[in-house]
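Researcher: Can you fold this with adenosine-5'-triphosphate in place?
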Amino acid sequence: MSSASTAIQFDGVTLGYGRRPAVHHLDGEIPAGCLMAVVGPNGAGKSTLLKGIVGTLKPLEGHIRLKGPASGIAYLPQVAEIDRSFPLSVYDLVAMGLWSRSGLFGGIGRRDHARIEEALAAVGLTGFERRPLSTLSGGQMQRALFARLLLQDAPLILLDEPFTAIDAKTTADLLDLVRRWHDESRTVVAVLHDLDMVKRSFPQTLLIAREPVAWGATGEVLSPENLLKARRMVEAYDPHADVCHRSVA
Ligand SMILES: Nc1ncnc2c1ncn2[C@@H]1O[C@H](COP(=O)(O)OP(=O)(O)OP(=O)(O)O)[C@@H](O)[C@H]1O
């Protein structure tokens, strides 16, 4: 049963594609206000887990319960999933962060304009308003996407590999925003590969290898034994297996 301080509750969750599970045996909760990293080897199911939380992927089994409506989620997908050829300006992209409030055709008032400019300033993109997305560097694009997240003003923020292929300065600036969200008591869940960063900046961690390997305080979760176990579990996983029904001992 989820409590008032639970942001996300997993009950016997299996997530997958077709009938093939990508993540299973997921039980537990993410407390509200938690700053949590999701780590694991390639193919461990980290992105799949975020898609399950966002609701773009329905569980094959079990339930994911969210405190608050799905519209209260701000989600940053992996860079590879974002189409930059779409003819949008930086301003338009960032303004999309207001959609949940203004609606698709709501128009942008003076206050909204000021908020967009504020968000652009917070990510260091003042002056980039009219630039087409296709002309941005990878780091500038990620800054623009963070500005959009800022405007979404969501209690739950999901980030899928937000710092991949961006330089140290951009990473530090964006990590400051993540800390700010945490200070504002938002729940932040980020898929990350840089374990040093996780140890430094993320108090809670879920180590996943198609199923949870360890979940809790980062220092305990990221033990050499757990990391080895996770690698072995992903290597041993049968990608053709059907949904399994593990009996409770
Ligand atoms: N759309 C899809 N259709 C079928 N299988 C998929 C799909 N998306 C992911 N998978 C499979 O689900 C498994 C988990 O993938 P997922 O992308 O969640 O892993 P990940 O931990 O995020 O990996 P990485 O660190 O490489 O990004 C993989 O075996 C992958 O091939």
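Model: Folded with adenosine-5'-triphosphate in place. The two ends are 21 Å apart (CA to CA).
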